[in-house]
Hints:
The protein has 69 residues and is an all-alpha fold. The chain is 65% helix and 0% strand. It contains 3 helices and no strands.
Amino acid sequence: MALTLAVNQLDAGLGDPLVSGGLLLFLAALVAFVVLTRRAGGHHLLNLRILTNHAFTYSLLIYVFLQLV
């Protein structure tokens, strides 16, 4: 939700506290998610090892950028 809010307010510029705070909150949540997922052992909500497949990762990035457009 923080990422959506920050992207919606990008017309105010990156210096706006709402934009920069939303992006920082999103990055902190993403880092926390990855760290907690790696510590979870064998029970993962999402298998992040799929991102080591370069074809899948590039396809995912293209899809995400197209959705932003």
